[in-house]
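#struct-pred

JT: dropping the chains for the assembly here, can someone run the whole complex?
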Amino acid sequence: MAVRTYGKIYLAEDNKWHINNAEPHVCIKLKALFTKISRGATQPFKFLNTDENCNDLLWFIDRYPLTVSDSDFYLLKKGKKKHNKDINDLEAILLPDYKPQVVKLKEPYVVRHYQLTGNEVYLKCKRLLIGDDIGLGKTVIGIISCLEKVTRPCVVVVQTHLPKQWKDAVEQFTDLKVHLVKGTKPYDLPPADIYITKYSCLSGWVNVFEKGIFKSAIFDEVQELRHNGSARYEGAKALSNNVEYCLALSATPIYNMGDEIFNVLDAIKEGCLGNKYDFLREWTGGGKTVVQPQALGTYLRENLLMLRRTRKEVGMELPPINKIVHSVGYDENEVIKADKLAKQLAIKVTSGSFMERGQAARELDILVRHATGVSKAKNVAEYVKILLENKIPIILAGWHRQVYDIWLEELKEYNPVMYTGTESPKQKEEAKQKFINGETNLFIISLRSGIGLDGLQEVCDTVVFGELDYSPQVHNQLIGRSNRDKKDGTKNNVTAYFLVSEYGSDPPIIDLLGIKTSQSHNIINPLTPIEEQYSNDSRIKLLAERYLSKKVIEVPIKNETRNITS
Amino acid sequence: MINKVLKILYSHRFPLVVEKETQHAIEEKFSDNDVPYSREHRLDEKNIPDFFIEGIAIEVKIKGTAKNIYRQCERYCGFDEVKKLILVTNRSMGFPKEIKGKPCYFINIGKAWL
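RK: done, full complex below.
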């Protein structure tokens, strides 16, 4: 008996699969299953001739038979076979005994095994987020991917302070020609293998991207694309949609809540998580928090949207970070100063008009964060003195200018150097060199200035947070300045002190940080058991005793390490 | 026993989004550490702390207002068989050291995720 057919499918001259003459109910079904076809689209429905689409179309034909020529049917089956082979190949690459093809760098540099496999997975998948742990050399994966002809010319998009670092790295390892793209206004680009630009410049180059002259794109620190709707996001999408290969790099793709992963992945592989509404409805229940973060993380891994290897997995484990949360006292006078204004704002937040409420809430947040930082600044300085008196080099992180001023005054005898938004790149470099050369033991840094900063690990294994950031990944990035491989191959036992106040913005920020970290951890490491928090304060107690014996004075601070708040 | 229980609750990372998952993870740690707990111990029809260990009532709260959480703890402390109380939560809130003369402990499990 002849099989009933519901329409016709063929490979057209535009190298796309066309479905035509389909019956209305089949059209409805097709649009429901292939959501990239808009609801209002009319026949013929067109599909790119990719192996994945061949696989899906064969599956659809199995349910709703379509008229197809023998030669086209053969092509569909060939595509399906290739698709399945690619999946098997990909799985094989990730097996521990897999031998990847060797990629040669300039002498004496050698690519590590996991970097080679990461590169091979990317070249097979064509669109991938690599989320290897901080310090595992994701940049090298990006660089070696450009050694393949098919990915050149490549556009590398980096944060504002990193173009030169990337250029230096490319030239250190390879002979590839690099051009640093200047500004947002397009100009005639000189021939090069790699063009490095900044996220902030993307929007100006959209027209150039759309010409399709670039073969691949690399988004370094891709968490920069966690917010959609901005000019930079649209610029990034224009670039991504006009290249064949797209690689995203970040150990911390989720900075805040789990929903951010949608924007990040949608930028590099549009539609891979469905549309935004589907994603929010199914994964977050309409909110920002992913309800089943481990399930989402597993999905990302299984579908090779994200590849992540921890230090442990690649045999480069660092000692656990010793995290100590310590409550410090606060200056009541500072609190009283801020209280009056805070009260007025709080009244507006609860009773003002819609606009007033929003603005007052933002102002209140800024005010309370500032007041919290200032009110505990002297106590933070006192705590830090214990470490400095014991000749321990430290990185001290803060956020507000007024807080820095208090620290500079209170700690001036220790010759602090500054690495914040106020210093020029030259001054920052000088500060870094002074710290590394041992001219000072106190490196005051802005919470958000640390990304990509390298070298401090040679002299410093102690990070002190005098103020908190709203994003846990900002803390991790800063800890990463000390928690990375040293030149001699040894590793630091890093201690991070979180000096928190019982007053002001610290308690709610801690609440939020907890939720954000658990979201990020479960999505990025769905199969890894939750790590224990390692917290050992015996060292600081010992240091405090030594400090007191030197000073021969009464206990200088009223603080206490509190494990349990009551 | 109280110190052992507090140490377990303080030193591990527990899920923070779904209360049942938090309870389940805590239960696992209690089992691993041979803590003789009982689940959903009935003080009466309406008052059922999540865990009960040798006179210590443990309430796990991920959601709810501070006021309601406090009232619930206050009710538990009204029972003779409750000698001590531990509130395990991911939200910062004021909590007294004693309720109705019974020692109370407050554990913010969010801190372990820092």
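JT: nice. The CA atoms of residues 126 and 245 of chain A lie 5 Å apart. Residues 552-566 of chain A have pLDDT under 50 and may be disordered.
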